[in-house]
Amino acid sequence: MIGVGVIGFGWLGQAHSRSLLRIPTLFPERADTRLVVCADPLPERREDAVRSFGFERATDDWRAVIDAPDVDAVWVAAPNMLHVELVEAAAAAGKPVFCEKPVGGTPEQTARAEAAARDVISGVGYNYRWAPLVQYARRLIADGVLGEITNYRGRFFSMYGSDPLGVLSWRFLVDEGGYGVTSDLMSHSVDLAHFLLGPITRVVGTTATFIPERPLPVAAGTHYGRGAPDDPKGAVTNEDYAGMLCEFASGVRGTFEASRSIVGPESQMAFEVYGTKGALGWNLETLNELQVYLVEDELHTGYRTVFGGDRFPYHGHFVPGSANGIGFEDLVVIEDYEFCRAVAEERPFVPGFGEALQWVRVQEALLRSAESGRWEDVR
């Protein structure tokens, strides 16, 4: 039985807690958990953690989570700029730690966290790796079904920051959230490319902030909150948009874009892979569909839609048959299930902080390129 402590009880802290509660109902072979203690500064969240989620206790002091003798593993879902201190403390206590991406708000912080946690099991919330059809896409690529891969296109377009009246939450402030879409969105996009195709060696890129100020939030406003036209405003201090061209170590050429202020795509975390014998594409907005094109000696050509179903990894634990869809939080269940298994078996978990470090090395090169206007090597 793994005693769980959760630090930060916003959306993702709650999502992980729900996932840990659901695991016994979905996976017969599992490492059982108990929700021991939750830390959050807001009293109503602490009350909800105990009343609705079944935590044994709640506290406003995160140290009480890490120091608790009945906590065996720690989940960090606090704002980005708090990650490093929490991770370092959990690692110093010898406890496995799962941290939401990007593990810090800057590349330097991620590097600190990775160095601190080398002697404990670490996990990072790159949950899109666990989508059953993403797992299948990786298999098609590895098996050579698409031939030699030549091109990759990754993007994460989200509208959560497209409203100029969206409040100035911590996500829009470099001192609280670190970098903007490079940390929040592009980290996912590039991590999937690493998962599918391997490392990136050099990049050229650009960043921009399209909405320079936003209404100040009332109390603990989130990036989904909305102010009024006459509300006092504050400056946005990190980027709304990032784009880059890149080269992979394998020779594949790639393009990436991420935006939180774009209008149209609601949550378009998507990729396309192009090879000499075929191509494929996946989009979070239709996460139960994979588009596959294969070069064949037939008169009819074009992409075919592969529907998710119980013939793909994990899917059948949630619903049987084909085209019966799973959702976002089901991916969180899968990653928490796999992390708990790694903790119980005392073995490394992937993606861990090493994979987070892979991304921030690319991020660092992108940010250098945005300043220099030149191609920059991934160090």
TrEMBL record:
Keywords: Oxidoreductase
Domain GFO/IDH/MocA-like oxidoreductase residue range list: 134-280
Domain Gfo/Idh/MocA-like oxidoreductase N-terminal: 2-118
Pfam families given in the database record: GFO_IDH_MocA (PF01408), GFO_IDH_MocA_C3 (PF22725)
Presence of keyword Oxidoreductase: yes
GO molecular-function terms, A-Z: nucleotide binding; oxidoreductase activity
InterPro entries the UniProt entry points to: Gfo/Idh/MocA-like_OxRdtase_N, Gfo/Idh/MocA_oxidrdct_glycsds, GFO_IDH_MocA-like_dom, NAD(P)-bd_dom_sf
Protein's name in the database: Putative dehydrogenase
Lineage, opening ranks: Bacteria, Bacillati, Actinomycetota, Thermoleophilia, Solirubrobacterales
